[in-house]
Amino acid sequence: MYQHSVTLFKIRGPLEIKSLYLKKVLSSKYTPLTWTFLILVLLCLPGSAIEKLDGPRIPHFDKYVHFLLFAGCCGLWSFYLSCKKYSPERLKKWYLQVFLITVIYGAVLEVVQYYFVPDRSFDLGDIAADAAGAFAAYLLFHFNLLKINIAS
Q1: Cα angle value 49/54/57 (rounded, 5°)
Q2: C-alpha triplet 69, 72, 75: angle, nearest 5°
Q3: Cα distance between residue 116 and residue 120, in whole Å
């Protein structure tokens, strides 16, 4: 019986892409741009537009959301850069820049919430969650890049 072998697309990043469509979507600059814009929209919604959910309360749920949003932001931008043909040294610098810009973006959005968005406030805990999420993505890409370079 003939078995068809599937080629895995190795990307210098923490993921193996098994689908051409998925590779095309994730390697496009529009994916991280869309995620970045989504964060802007979500964090600039007035407090009155965010419904209070009935059911069990999860303590500090908003911090988990901030962590995931900014891990996604830093991760998607890092993945996009991983698809480029940059040297490992240059990628490490890019990853650090993406991390720093993501943290600054989160802090600026907290200031915007405080001054311009009704029923929203400035919260250092949100900035810490943003930074922690971005840092988690940074570590994932940075150390995976090191692992790939050591193996090759």
Answers
A1: 100
A2: 150
A3: 9
Distances 53 to 41, 56, 58, 61, 63 between C-alpha atoms, Å: 20, 9, 11, 11, 16
pTM for this prediction: 0.81
Q: Which residue, among 28, 15, 18, 144, has the nearest Cα to 84 in the 3D structure?
A: 28
DSSP-derived letter for residue 47 is G
Q: For 116-142, write each residue's pLDDT tens digit.
A: 999 888 999 999 999 999 999 999 988
Q: Are strands 9-10 and 16-17 parallel, antiparallel or unpaired?
A: antiparallel
Question: What confidence tens digit (pLDDT) does each residue in 73-93 have?
Answer: 999 999 899 888 888 889 999
Packing angle of the helix pair 124-151, 88-116 (nearest 10 deg): 170
Residue 8 sits at φ, ψ, to 5 deg, of: -90, 135
- Phi, psi dihedrals of residue 4, rounded to the nearest 5°: -85, 125
In sequence order, what are the residues at sequence separation of 6 or more whose Cβ sits closer than 8 angstroms to the Cβ of residue 105? 36, 39, 73, 130
pLDDT at 2 over 50: no
What proportions of the chain, in percent to the nearest 5, are helix, strand and coil?
Answer: 70, 5, 30
